[in-house]
Amino acid sequence: MTDDLLGDYRADAAAREARPPVKVTALRTRPDRTVFTEDDNADGWIATDLTVTVEQ
């Protein structure tokens, strides 16, 4: 069973690597509101009242 799970994990990892990266844009609509949109997806967006800075 462990080999099956490892095989599934590797297949998932390969599929993730094959996908092109998604570009997300953050727009500040007012000082306390940020709206995130995905390129080529005008119908889908996420609004939030709290965002944090992501460090890599």
Beta-strand residue percentage? 35-45%
Count of beta strands: 3
Q: Which structural category do the helix and sheet elements fall into?
A: alpha+beta
Report strand order across the widest sheet: 1-2-3
Whole-angstrom Rg: 17 Å
Oligomer: single chain
Mean pLDDT: 75
Question: What would you say this structure looks like, in words?
Answer:
This protein has 56 residues and is an alpha+beta fold. The chain has a domain at 21-56. The chain has one helix and three strands; from the N terminus they run H-E-E-E. The protein has one helix spanning 2-18, and strands spanning 24-30, 33-38, 41-48. Strands 1-2-3 form a three-stranded antiparallel beta sheet, with no helix packed on it. The longest helix is centred in the first third of the chain and has 17 residues, at 2-18. It is elongated and about 50 Å long.
What is the strand and helix layout of this fold?
Layout: H1 2-18, E1 24-30, E2 33-38, E3 41-48
Antiparallel strand pairs: 1-2, 2-3
What labels describe this entry?
single chain, alpha+beta, three-stranded antiparallel β-sheet, 1 helix
In short:
The chain is of the alpha+beta class and 56 residues long. Helices cover 30% and strands 38% of the residues. The model has no long low-confidence stretch (mean pLDDT 75).
